[in-house]
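Bench notes, afternoon.
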Amino acid sequence: MMTDEDYMRAALVLARQGWDAGEVPVGALVVCGGEIVGRGFNQPISSHDPTAHAEVMALRDAAGRLGNYRLAGCTLYITIEPCVMCSGAILHARVARVVYGAREYKTGAHGSIMDVFAEPRLNHHCEISGGVLADECAAMISGFFEARRQQKKEATQ
């Protein structure tokens, strides 16, 4: 039986795919009944699609595989705290549980900026846990931006 940490490591592999593609390295996967049914990594730059965040890509993949836009009983693993857009998609998909790694202090919608998931007027709520492999997840993001800064610095010399 895989643990939250095991699934988060799999999401980190997806985040690395995003990095390799030149995207901000965020990875996400959807698990239902112990099986990974959806995978995604950030693709807004390459797809010219502002909605192509890792979470949305994983939700789309899972919905297509399961043949249903409702993902009741599923868990979504994300390497970083979801933004408002992704939080809305998660709630509309009726995901049962969300597990994320690092906080996102600029756009996070689970308490870093606001807490969409705690809004009592919404018609769906899910269990949410943050901080799973937070250091590794944060290191992936910070390493990506450090590498970009270094590339820009070298390009101007």
